[in-house]
Amino acid sequence: MSIPMTAPEVLDREFLELRAKILELASSFDRFGRASGSVTSDPRLERLHEALDVLKDTNDDRAQQVQLIFSRPYEDDWREKYGL
């Protein structure tokens, strides 16, 4: 059985990859700002901002919360709706 890593060990292992991902996100948002036109009222951008807010929380279920932001709500009749 493996021994779980400590928080400092996880940070040591994940820091550079997380840093790179954050820089990639920042550059994407910079491209929105420099491009012509506006996406401020686009619901996809609103979801991205909502997901970023979740990341700043200290809850242990951030991945689940972000997944739910980008998921469709459950519908009982989904089979009929999609012809399955």
Characterization of the model:
This protein is mostly helical. It has one domain. The protein is 64% helix and 0% strand. The protein has 4 helices and no strands. Helix 2 runs antiparallel to helix 3. It is flat, with a radius of gyration of 18 Å. The chain starts with 6 loop residues before the first helix and ends with a helix. The mean pLDDT is 93.
Structural class: mainly alpha
Low-pLDDT parts are none
Distance between the termini: 43 Å
Count of helical stretches: 4
From the spread of the alpha carbons, the general shape counts as flat
Task: Return Rg in Å.
Answer: 18 Å
Strand content: under 5%
How many strand segments?
0
> What does the largest sheet look like?
none
The helical percent reads 55-70%
Q: How many domains comprise the coordinates?
A: 1
Q: Could you give the order of the helices and strands?
A: HHHH
In round numbers, the mean pLDDT is: 93
